[in-house]
Amino acid sequence: MPAAFSDPIWRKPKTVPAFQSELSSGGALDAIIVGGGIMGLSTALHAARAGLSVQVLEAGAIGQGASGLNGGQVIPGLKYDPEWLIEHFGAERGEALVDFAASTADAVFDLIRDEQLAVPFTRKGWIQAAHTETALKAAANRDRQWQARGADVSLLSQSEIAAMTGAKGYLGGWLDRRAGVIDPLSYTLELARVAAGSGAKIAEQQKVVKLAKEAGLWRVSTQGGTELRAKSVVLATNAYTDGLLPGLARTIVPLHSFQIATAPLPAELAASILPGGQAVSDSRRILVYYRKSADGRLVLGGRGSMALPSSASDWTHLERALLRLYPALAGIAIEKRWFGRVAMTPDHLPHLHEPEKCLLAVVGCQGRGVGLMSALGKRMASYLASGDARQLPFPLSPIRPIPFHAFRQIGVAATITWYRMLDAFER
């Protein structure tokens, strides 16, 4: 695929350190973390600060995967509302999970503040925009539940959402002021920097190809021939999960999230589009999400094809969505197009697995990965340090491959096409 068809807006600073040579030597480590995205790096940072010896092994480069390619929306909560979580998980665990879900955006913005991370960010909230009466009722129900827990949230009328977004076609919506936006690549790279500064070893270009347990320790082998030993292993590969742990890759459906960015908006347009700096996700079956970047571009993303893109036309559906929302942008150039891989679980919840003692795996971000994985990494580090499963917000569950997994992806692609057509009728 030509490089022009994967050209993200986010750019590595020239001063980014290289981690290629940061391999541990000597005896057994406390933990090896496979995957240098937000989940892996957050776990490494907090585990190192808890006094554990930690090695991160990243198959590519730090920030190369979805952690550095996403839209940078930092959204608290989960796909499900508090009452559902309590009903599904029971009163004690459900309430604890609601509290955890409420804290995930804080985990990001507190870290940026406390560590003085060089990460462009704005914390002005996130709007869930409703384009149907059904979506508006769901927003009112969500608002009622979070208001009862003291969250800084509110419903938006049709006139309020029009003023806050400048977009056309919404009946109302919901504003969560706990949320915000960041530059996700800068955040991922800064997580790596502070994790390394706290004692974690980080090695890029180290693809793990084999795990084996010997004499109570895990032996981790890389494609380049390196072998390391550790008491615990954490697989933090999410949508890039392969056959390293049997069955794990078949518990998720990997999807592509495509994004576009306009040229910097002229002042008169910038003043009318998201003037308060909020992020937005809409209520369509195949939703789009958008925000303004630090340099004044409008960045919009949504589901793309299951196949890898081969030309600029693979982003056409996003350009149509952009003009549906903002007809005034018809003359503004689309300067950047890129994509990343995300993971969907059948129940739309993160899954935590421990198929063997001290072998852990986490999959499933469900569109909230920046905050969710930052907060979950801290809890995972506490579990590594204490062995107390109560530190984990989600229960450990068995690995359950999706039946007929090979056909599930075909079905998802067909469903995306069908939902996109239904969405078009609801303009």
TrEMBL record:
GO terms for molecular function: oxidoreductase activity. Keywords: Oxidoreductase. Gene3D superfamilies: D-Amino Acid Oxidase, subunit A, domain 2, FAD/NAD(P)-binding domain. SUPFAM superfamilies: FAD/NAD(P)-binding domain (SSF51905). It holds the Pfam family DAO. Residues 30-381 form the FAD dependent oxidoreductase domain. This is FAD-dependent oxidoreductase. Its EC number is 1.-.-.-. It is an enzyme of class 1 (oxidoreductase). The keyword Ribosomal protein does not apply.
